[in-house]
Amino acid sequence: MPETMLNVTDGDRSVYSVTRAEALALGYPEAAIAQAEAQAAAAAARAAIRATIDRTVGDTPSIVGTLADVSGILTAGQMVRVVALADHASTAAEQAELDMLKALAGYADLVQICRDGLAALQGGQALLTASAKGIDTVFAEAMTRSTATAAILAARKEGEA
Predict the structure, then answer these.
(1) What angle do CA 87, 92, 94 make, to 5 degrees?
(2) Domains: count for the chain
(3) 21 domain-assigned
(4) How would residue 157 be classed by pLDDT, with cut points 50, 70 and 90?
(5) C-alpha dist (Å) from residue 42 to 49, 78, 151
(6) Residue 1 lies inside a defined structural domain of this protein
């Protein structure tokens, strides 16, 4: 097994891609080397988890596709919410929510943007990938991927205990 390559810093200087022995020979303190080893171990653990997810849950493009599908649904849902609040806010809490959403939009006319977006979806000028796939399929895919990823993360946590 190849020796772990470290990125070591002691506050005044840094060295990249060196072995433990090389860092010691360069005069780096043991504490700095230990910290670099801990960072390297954490990075290796993350890489192992990502590789497991890639093998069992889906490769990055597939996961990004699912994320895009779900994001489209959430964006459309938020557009519906903004328009409904603009047209029918009946409580102080609903008006406050609309005001906060508008504030997030800055100078943009959030309500009009949402109206236009919904009109484009309803008129067929815009299409959600989730609509093309089938929202039931997207929800099932998202839940399956989420559950599988959560199981991998939970197994890792149990292994640390």
Answers:
(1) 45
(2) 2
(3) yes
(4) confident
(5) 11, 37, 19
(6) no
What are the angstrom distances between the C-alpha of 37 and each of 3, 15, 103, 159? 11, 13, 45, 20
Instruction: Supply angle C-alpha 5, 157, 6, rounded to 5.
Output: 10
Residue at a domain's end among 14, 31, 56:
56
Range of the domain at 22: 6-56
Could you report the per-residue pLDDT of 99-121, keeping only the tens digit for each?
999 999 999 999 999 999 999 99
| CB-based contacts of 72, cutoff 8 Å, min separation 6 | 128, 129, 130
- Quick one: 86 and 26 in the same domain? no
Q: 0.85 cut: is pTM over it?
A: no
Note whether 12 and 85 are same-domain residues.
no
Instruction: State the Cα–Cα distance between residues 14 and 100, nearest whole angstrom.
Output: 45
Distances (CA, A) of 67 to 2, 76, 78, 117, 131: 36, 14, 16, 20, 14
